[in-house]
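Researcher: For the record, we're logging two predictions in this thread. I'll number them. Prediction 1 follows.
Model: Prediction 1, sequence and structure:
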Amino acid sequence: MFRTVSPRLLASAAGVALAAGLLAAPAASAATDGRATDPAVVPSPGFYGTGIRTDACDGTTAPGWIATTAPALTARTAADRARFKVWDETGTKVFDAEGTAVDGTATARPAGLTEGRTYTWRAKGAGGGAPTAECHFRIDATAPSLTLDSADFPSSDSGRTPQKYAGQTGTFTIAGSDAASGVACYRYVLNGTPSVGNDCTGAVRPAADGSATFTLKPKDWGTNILTVQAFDEAGNASQPVTYTFYAPPNPNPPQSVPGDVNADGVPDVLLPDADGNLQVLGADATSTDPASTTAAAYGPGGTWAGTTIAHRGWDSSHAPADDLFVHVPGGAALYLYRNLDQGAFQRTPVLLARPTACAAAGCAADWSAADQLVALGALGTGQQSSLVTVENGDLWLFQAATVGTRYSTVKRLSTTGPWAGYDVVAPGKAADGSLALWSRERATGTLRTYPIAKQADGTYDFSALADPSAGTAVGTFPAAEYPLLGSSGDGNGDGRPDLYAVTAARHLLTFDGTAAPKDLGALR
């Protein structure tokens, strides 16, 4: 005789049995029940242009690209195998097979996939349960193509005459194409080997039609070889295209001037863009289009943003274009970028040590207290630019008798911290060699000038810098209107620093002395 047992009684009995250890608890996760989880494609789908990688296992994420028609599909499972299914963009199933699991990962390799198509796939573990989410990828297994041309520096086999000289900037045009994923970017190098990376950081981005333009300056006259390589969104790289051209010598080379970093005879303004790249803008520019840009990756810590930059003068080992002094506020190091490539600043910087005399003079043993940095150019017999820093409200002068990695002398120019609350602006140089340092009082916006006279024995009198309030007022530049105030150097030869300012809206303004402001437009 059979007795009916109520569901409540069954539940109660099960609870007692579980408490007594007679029944096992159900599996807590797919790691133990044989379901398939963590679907992934090898190689990982993505977008070379941004470096983003995604398996697009939802209905909204754009499928990434892979550069092969024979990927591996993987899923984690506690079972001994998993079943993989693949559909093309028309909904047709193109693959349905099991993959054996090794060390908890099941793998299948679909065959017959076609370039240019989008595929959807999922996996289901042999232990049962729901399959994984549907994931997606696209295929582009063919490298892009490109052609290169320049009217300024035509190829040597074209029969055309160059329109620019060595030391002048030329424009180059790329025409590129990629039928599937599209051209993501171009990398180029003059007289070298193109760099590689995991994305398009620091590379030239194309327009929608795959074309791109860029500028470069061959610093030496003679035959030059430009090498360009294209990359598509799947990461395929074209064969390097070499472009040989002749840069004739300039019959009227520009004269070197203080503040010039690209050897075109014009002082330059150096400012980071919104992405941390370093822009070079000529003081005579009519817009904020940079003459050249050095990628953020070459800056200290991988960016130029937030750094303090000074330039005035060069050492004797290269062409007369300014070296670059760079300091990260609060950092112990001072970096010297020797200007061996006329403004490219892509070489490893040198670390500049403080004078051993700092211990006796009372200055810090490193550069961490320097919150401002001004380059004066070479003073006296030395080749390396002298520097003025603002540290704890005082001015310090650092000089080097010879080119090297350590400054040899240090001099304190003020005491009791009177320069706290002032912005120091780099000087120009008069015909007799005398200098003028300028400052902006942040609280009032008052701009003052201070003479640094060159004396008969060749030394300089810095006594006017002891008290910043004693300078001669020459204008007003409110800090709220002009958060950044600087100087490109003595561009007009009258011994005055030609000012520039960046407004609160990131517009770049240039001045003739302190007058005649020109708005060059918004900075990038």
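Researcher: Logged. Prediction 2.
Model: Prediction 2, sequence and structure:
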Amino acid sequence: MRVRQLTAAAAALLLAAVLGGCSDRPAPARPPAPEPVPEVTAATGDVPPTDRAAVGDGGTLRWAVDRVPATLNVYQPAATADSALLAHALYPSLFRPDGHGRLVPDPDYLAGAESTPPGQQPQVVTYRLNPHAVWSDGTPLTAADLIAQRAALSGLDPAYRSGHPAGYDAIDSIGQGADPREVKVTFRRPCADWPSLFGPLYPAAETSTAAAFNQALAGGEHPSAGPYTVSRYDAEDGRVTVVRNPLWWGDRPKADRIDFLAAAPERRLDALDQDLLDIAPVTAAVDRAAPPAPSASPSAAAPPAAAPEAAALALRRAESLPGITVHRAATASLTQLTLNAARAPLTDPALRLALGRAVDRRRVAAAALTPLGLAPATLGSHLLAGDQDGYRDNSAAAGPADAARLFDEAGWKRPDGGGTRAKDGKALTLDLLVPAGSATAKRTADALTAGLAEQGVALRTVTAPADTFVKDHLAVGDYDLALFSWPAGPSPASEQRPAYAKPRPDPDGTLDPGSNYARSGTEEIDRLFDRAAGELDRATRLDLLQEADVRIWQLGHSVPLYQRPELVGVRSGVAGAGVWGFDWPRFQDVGWSLTS
């Protein structure tokens, strides 16, 4: 499973429930022809190409994290975005994503990997591990590590406290091949996402028993197998230090060591200014910048309308910090407007489709992204980012572009002379739930409110903090419209399925939406996701995903708006750092340039 970073989004709350699995159903016919791709598409990530020859040997990098993670095992409930970041420096991933979200073998860990061709049953995948790969205690990476991890993550033993990521449950058997470096995995049903398995990979000693697996993985006494190894793990001091792994067999890491330092987002601009950090995500520092309190009442809370102005000031400050470059780009996370189909009047699909067509996505993207110096790129897919392999704009599937006609046909008429539409004496006034304290969310909400008002729809913005956004609103259906984001990863068939899976009734008859907070879905959409997850032919798999996206548009489930923006401050002279987008850092290449 590729583990995505779980962070507080600038434009929305980032929800990362990675469920689903693999299937063996046949493919459908190709979906209808799409609407032309928008003129402006997002560029996911911004990391200047690194020439290793131009990067010096030695030095220390200071890298901001939110906090020292409680565990480095990304499959444990306590794992965070910082767990995933450090794990990529310390543990193997057999495949890694490229700049377009495609998983490719990592030669540091794999000498080769192949699956049986589409249509051949059963599917058998053969991994050949790099013969030079060893854990930091000198133990070779072998089939035993993959076998133990499969047992831990398959869901067969409830004693393992894990989220059971997709794909492991599809494995029928796993064992050593011709030698300990060869692993053969046989699937009980085809699994298209097999490259996402065993990333990160942990040593068998950490996963072979539930007792070992369930312990917090922290500190330097645990074997690792990345370019770096832990030398200090100090939660009290807010510091994790990693140093070159002396047994590393790949390209020599450029930096002697990296200090991951706990730094609250609101203090990062100061830390960069004071030369205390070299690499620091600053999205939250800008997006959630607090305006100065009124002089007459220093403790008074700032009005929500002040957030965009404070964010603009924070961005200008970040851009003016001496010796700091602010890298900015879209990240692999899709911000959408979700429509609650279980709450009147949005129970009517005709009204949902009219609302979807009434949203001016270009206007919204411009309001959200232009103030951050990003192109106003819109999204036309629920499942894929703008420059992800296979992306296309399917928004034409939502029906005619004439939203006014759709509203009228749904029975929501506008009074003579304009104003708010009404039906059966009830005005079309809806609540819009947005994350509290986010300037990007506020700009988005303001653009949505203004644009929909022109179509006769009145919105009331309701804000909620991150700790209650899901449990008190999305999960219980206490909203009409909601603004939040879903990650876009290299395995959309399994990673995106939870957001669109048809809600099922609990034993008591109560509808359980799972992670589908829109509460609308169909058996057909579920089947399309399942078939895509089990389709080994890439072109056919993309066709299945396109058809699923078409059906989601036609359902009036949600409206994709734009990719979530990300900002990272990087000190002059640091090479190999920026906004990573689909990818994660190649830590052995990050260092100080020879010209710094």
